[in-house]
Amino acid sequence: MLKFIPYILKTLWGHRARTLLTVAGVAVGMFVFCFVGSISEGLDRMGADAKSQRTLIAFQANRFCPFTSALPEDYERRIAKLPGVTEVVPIQVWTNNCRASLDVVVFHGIRPEKLKTARKLTLISGSWEDFERSQDSALMGAAVARRRGVQAGQSFSIGGVTVRVAGIYEAETPTEEDFIYSHLAFLQRRQGQNSVGTVTQFEISLADGVDPERVAQQVDDLFHGGPVATDTRPKGVFQASSIDDLMELIHLAGWLGMACVVLVLALVSTTTVMAVQDRIREHAVLQTLGFSGGKISSFVLCESVLLSAIGGAIGTGAAMATLAYAGLTVGAEAVSLAFTPTVSLALSAMMVSLIAGASAGIVPAWQASRADIVPALRHV
Q: Number of helices and strands (H, E) in the chain?
């Protein structure tokens, strides 16, 4: 079959307008499929890593947006004494938008010494010492920096909060690169606010083998009588509950991805049927030259798969490049979900385009192989 590839390509190029339009349609379909898939993969990764499973988030009970949660900072001492707890990190959270948004900016106020142990950040520009020295400085995630066009050393302002970016960092997970880390005291005393002595939440790290549900219950029981009750959950569960309003939209996006696959299938199938109808006499001539019906059907099937594969490769490549460069996120209640390009997503998209191309070519290939020579030669 490989020796007939030039013939198949020449045939496709003979109807270049139709071929290019089909390839473009497949590319658009797979582009959208990849975007939808990146959301679903981001959701799946949210609580999948081992660290998230060994980390708890203590939030004020019956509160939702970070603006409404205020826990006494001295809870840190009492939580740290619980069996199985290895570290407690008080965090002050501020966000420009608690509702669902495609451009959520989230500040996490953490003491520098806690940030160094609780997060694995790699500075790609700027200085850690500069961040430690100045309370109005911050470390900005690479994804936020790309979206906002910010570089180390510049000032960044949003919603009444102004910081000097002491460094840009990369992290182990794409979602982590959507945060801006500032000093805890700075965020507690931000413009128009004085929340010294309170924090939004506590991040509780557990030792290996400790039951997170048991410790979460112990934390909530510890503060059940006040002064402020807590609601403690594993980090992945907490994040999922925070974006609960987005879940229906994400599931709907999954159906959109399926619709894109159906679109590719219909588009390639229609093009292949038209190609077979246009080349009835050509296929009859091939049969008179000794080509079997099976060989002709393989030509048609190969054309269908090739069209879908080329379009799929273009669409997938464009989607991966866009996702990598744009650093898009969707978030709610200060929890971000990153649109991330992955090798598995690209391979899945290419596999889908190949399967769609093969499926679309089955019926036209069968029709081409069943054509009678004499009526086909008379066809005009």
A: 15, 14
Q: Total structural domains in the chain?
A: 2
Handedness of CA 328, 94, 187, 81 (dihedral sign): negative
Report pLDDT for 37: 83
**What's the rounded Cα separation, in Å, for the pair 323 and 73?**
39
Does residue 53 fall inside a structural domain? no
- What range defines the domain where residue 164 resides? 63-228
Domain endpoint, select from 198, 228, 258: 228
Name the amino acid, one letter, at 142. Answer: A
Q: List per-block mean pLDDT (blocks of 10 residues) for the chain, which spans 380 residues.
A: 60 72 86 84 62 81 78 92 93 78 82 90 92 93 87 89 93 83 89 78 90 92 87 78 65 76 80 65 56 67 84 92 77 68 88 87 71 48
User: How many residues appear in the chain?
Assistant: 380
Q: CB of 245 within 8 A of CB of 331?
A: no
Question: Is 241 part of any domain?
Answer: no
**pLDDT value of residue 380:** 44
pTM of the model: 0.73
Q: How many CB atoms lie within 10 A of CB 200?
A: 27
Contacts of 336 (CB under 8 A, 6+ apart): 104, 106, 175, 178, 179, 329, 330
Tally Cβ neighbours within 10 Å of residue 163: 25
Let me know whether 30 and 73 are in one domain: no
Q: Are residues 130 and 197 in the same domain?
A: yes
